[in-house]
């Protein structure tokens, strides 16, 4: 008799404990999230398109004078709105500040592009070394 009573009593206690979390509708009540204190919040810098210059000095994000020149045919990347140009050095992800220059570098066009590679720049395109474009010449 004792062997049957212990499991039944245990089941009753567990069911009663679960019943305390139910609301009038029978759904479980959501737990309140604790409010963060000032010591819990970490103030991180916002991402920026700007890059660092020599010795960590901020720069404008534009390449310095005397940038690199790459020539080739513009291709579409695997992600939307990503343009690539491949040369003997590899694949370059073209980054434009000026929409008119981007229009001159349409997919399939042969171009000569001047700019600067930014290998440490983050991108959602997942292809090529980011290359900040300062001029586009069709040809």
The class by helix and strand makeup works out as alpha+beta
Mean pLDDT score, rounded?
75
| Largest sheet composition | 5 strands, mixed, barrel
- Rounded to an integer in angstroms, the radius of gyration calculated over CA atoms is 30 Å
List low-pLDDT spans. Answer: 46-64
The SSE order reads HEEEHEE
Number of helices: 2
Structural overview:
The chain is an alpha+beta fold and 139 residues long. 17% of the residues lie in helices and 27% in strands. It has two helices and five strands, in the order αβββαββ. The protein has helices at residues 2-19, 99-104; strands spanning 68-76, 83-87, 90-95, 110-117, 129-138. A five-stranded mixed beta barrel has the order 1-2-3-5-4. The longest helix has 18 residues, at 2-19. It starts with a helix and ends with a strand.
